Amino acid sequence: MPPHAPRQRQRQRRRSLLTLAALAALAVCVFAAFWLLDYFVIDAATAHHKEGPLRQIFNYDAFTMQNALGSLSQVIAAVLGIAITVVSIVVQLAATRYTSRVADLFFRDKINLGVMGFFVIACVESVWVSFVVRGDFVPQATITATVLMSSGSLLILVPYFAYVFDFLDPEKVIARIGVQTLERATARDGKKRAGTVTDRQAQAVSGLAHLADIAVNALGQKDKVIASDASAALRRLLVDYQDRKAALEPEWFSIGAPLRADPDFVALAADSLDDLGRNRTWLEWKGLRQIREVFGAALDSMPEMAHVVAIDTRYVGEAALAAANREVFSLTVKFMNTYLRAALNARDVRTAYNVLNQYRQLTEALLAAPAAADGWTLATVIEIAGHFKYYARLAHSSGMGFVTETVAYDLCALCEVASARRAGCHDRLLAIFLEVDKEPENQAEERALRGVRKAQAKLASYYLMSGEAARARAIFDDMANESAERLRSIRDEMLAITSKDFWEVVDRGTNFDYVPEARKEKLRQFFSGFAALARA
């Protein structure tokens, strides 16, 4: 749940109490003013009061009460009917639009149960008291309590409706589902109340599915705000879970028969299910599968939301790194690959561009992790670079040259980070980068691979600035067979870029081909070594 949520709830409760107090005070003041006007001014000339104004109010007689109490019970019953009608309509509309879980949340809320219970008790009390008034017996305390309860029923109606509408605010419903799912799954609300492990697993699966349903439904209705909130709730749940899973009992990670029957698990091979149980990652798998479902829906109906889903997935991977959970990080990498495949299959270049941005940042976080020098980290970086190369070539063969160019610049950025951190995988990373391009077969491929060469030249200028001449030489040797015309045009185009910012609105913010002035001299130095340029 967002850190400001408890403060919002406290403010809402204060507003409700202040509204109730203001209405009650206004009602008392209006009644008191007219009552005292009647008592001391209008009625004073014609009657002699034997009792004070306050005692006069509570001096009930049997005839009056028998007539009044019947009407009073009808008023309270009408108030109850109004409350039930409004609440049922609003809850049903919310449940239809977002998720059926809304009704469950509503009737589990203590305030909703308390207010509805108060209405019912007040109604029953007014009915019963109308039967106990006799000519020789008037139960004044009971009648007074009934009058106060009926007044309270009327006064509480407005602030209660305000509470209901606030309770059903989509952002709060989504946050509430996420928090309750996490609390019940990790037994933070008390193991006895949380139920058995099987019950908790079912609650966790149900909560994840409801959040995904909310996001998918919102995307279908072009509601970006609610879809973003639902995706963020899935992400927060998986991120917070990383800190709690170490304290969970071993049984929690076992995948029993009920869990195997879930749609996201039933299609998996038995070995894959066993791996999820052994690696203690079944909940993350389920959660990321739900996020992938949101990604697919966004790709079809609202592509700009696919970027948000990729960001949330990156956050899950970074949380796994912080918790030293390598298996979950590997899962995140698989889902990033899945996003790229889906974007390329849909020929959605912009989504692929945005996913690559998040994928690269996730890899940079891996290189910056405290354990970045260990074998697993280095091997994972090389594995991810291999994925980059694969999708670059796949995009290239599918006629999406800009994606290939984007991969080249992302690999360039990763090589720079590896250099700055003196990563042991640096040379292998550079070798993969130099394998991305191949001989162009037509003019369109020529343009795409020119972008790859620009990224390589840009990296060479970085190496020369950093005193890594041998690595710059490796790039030089890879480009040695390029024609003089191509090398010259690449050099001139890169030197001509003077603005760091791209001229369109993009998430990356910078121009791929931009090279700072300090590095342009090194770029000139790099190109001056080509004999083809010297002869031209």
- Sheet-strand content, in percent, reads under 5%
> Based on helices, strands and strand pairing, what is the structural class?
mainly alpha
- Biggest beta sheet summary: none
> What is the radius of gyration computed over CA atoms, rounded to a whole number of angstroms?
35 Å
**Overall average residue pLDDT:** 83
Number of strands: 0
Key words describing this protein structure:
536 residues; 25 helices
Could you walk me through the main structural features you see in this protein, from its secondary elements to its overall organization?
There is one protein chain. It is built from 25 helices and no strands. The protein has helices at residues 5-42, 53-57, 62-97, 101-108, 110-132, 140-167, 170-185, 191-194, 197-220, 224-244, 257-260, 263-266, 270-278, 282-301, 304-322, 326-345, 349-368, 375-397, 401-420, 426-434, 443-465, 469-478, 484-496, 517-528, 531-535. Helix 9 packs antiparallel against helix 10 (224-244), helix 19 (401-420) runs parallel beside helix 21 and helix 21 (443-465) runs antiparallel to helix 22.
List the helices and strands and how they pair.
Blueprint lengths: L4 H38 L10 H5 L4 H36 L3 H8 L1 H23 L7 H28 L2 H16 L5 H4 L2 H24 L3 H21 L12 H4 L2 H4 L3 H9 L3 H20 L2 H19 L3 H20 L3 H20 L6 H23 L3 H20 L5 H9 L8 H23 L3 H10 L5 H13 L20 H12 L2 H5 L1
